[in-house]
Amino acid sequence: MSEVKNRIAVLRAEHKISQQALADAISVSRKTISTIETGRFTPSVTIALKLAIFFNVTVEEIFSLN
Question: Where is the HTH cro/C1-type domain (predicted)?
């Protein structure tokens, strides 16, 4: 089974933004950001698109299959 990997923590560090600030910006909880970053939760397409728009990158630049 494939595992979804992501670069959210890296992008947050590059943009100097906290989990809470990112969560507030895309209207989710900080816990949602945390669980996505650690791979315990795969986000919906809507959340993935909001993250891509926020970071000004493509969804594929954030998420990949392992």
Answer: 8-62
